[in-house]
Amino acid sequence: MTQNPVQLSPVGWMSQLSQNEMALITDHTNTKHYHLFRNCVLAVLNSGAETDDMTSMLDKHKSFAIDLIRRERGVKIELLNPPQEVFVDGKLISGVHEHVFAVMRDLLYVESIYPNHSTESCSGSAATDMVFDMLRHANALENNDGINTVVCWGGHSIEHIEYQYTKEVGYQLGLRGFDICTGCGPGAMKGPMKGAAIGHAKQRIKNGRYVGLTEPSIIAAEPPNAIVNKLVILPDIEKRLEAFVRFGHAIVVFPGGVGTAEELLYLLGILLHSKNQSQQVPLILTGPKESSDYFEAINAFVEATLGIEATQKYRIIVDDAKAVAQHINNQREVIRNQRLQNGDAFSFNWSLQIEPEFQIPFVPTHENMANLHLHRDQSSADLAANLRKVFSGIVAGNIKADTIAHIAEKGKFKLTGDPELITMVEQLLEQFIAQGRMKLPGKAYEPCYEIVKSSVNSIQL
Fold first, then answer.
1. For residue range 251-293, what is the model confidence (pLDDT) as tens digits?
2. Domain coverage including residue 35
3. Orientation angle between helical segments 125-137 and 237-247, nearest 10 degrees
4. The domain boundary residue, chosen from 327, 356, 385
5. Beta strand segments in 47-127, E
């Protein structure tokens, strides 16, 4: 049944636009950018939904449409047939309202200021400048100079006891004045924010920040949770990951699946770089005692593939949320002194060396996945970069609509390489599947990949 259109007035930066900016926005409704904009807004309007299936969400709301209405001082958004769960007595929830305009702000900005952001040339300082510029443009860097932002990574599909533990860690961090930054979705992305909000309330902290960093192709499968009060949409997964590690002052990794493995390998690959040996980035892997097997598997995989040096870049703390928060709190002065010594900013880690291999967008096509260099004749940092791409491609095959469609057409991704190495990848993935970390509870997982054990890359496409 068709509903009456809902009009939204602009908030934040979007409330004051030039005539040229308004023309740019409204012109987008007649281009390919409209569909991206429409789908991202729909994802935001599904805030709080427990889903990891972008295709079913889009199918469920086929009648949803969005229009942009020009006004003298700005632009209004008109929604047709939006999801009703985010309305209270006919009025859109304020946080969701803000997120809708955050989508417009970031998509407009990246397409108008950085039209070639997806090209290979956008690496090195150009990519870093872009990440900084987008965080600054979203006002995310405000109040980020107190060495008080903890990035939390972890799966959207976790057990209830693991979710409760993420809340307890967030609570202990909140009591110590830390703000939380996550991928903005459910599970281990929501729990720390929820816990920190309670800790902030007890300490009468009224300006707590709950920052969600996402990107267009994943936001629909991981809609922003209701706690997020600062949403930033980076243009691709690589810039999202760079934003995490430059924006945060410490990183906590909770149990998760391939997405969490991707994030951990990304950071380890960076920290293994010779120019980053002096970097102070507290990295803690933590979960309840019921998750001990998970961390044993991750640690064994990292040691076997990247070496003992990589395992020395993090600390594993099991079933002790207070110890996690205390350790990070004790490292505050160490981080501050290192930034001062490097002449670096407190709000954004400029001195962290990130190679183009970690910045250039990886497109998980069948050819690219088959040709990944999964052999030991490379540095540990380069191997981490290639392993990261394996898990990134599987994330795309699990939840991104366009990649799922390609797999349905061409079959599963083929992964090949050094037999010993590819076997370790296979075993870790099998453990994720057995532990139910690849799909939300109650949903069967069908692998989007196939392991081909060969000594050379001989896949013919």
1. 999 999 999 999 999 999 999 999 998 899 999 999 999 999 9
2. 6-113
3. 70
4. 356
5. 65-70, 75-80, 87-88, 91-92
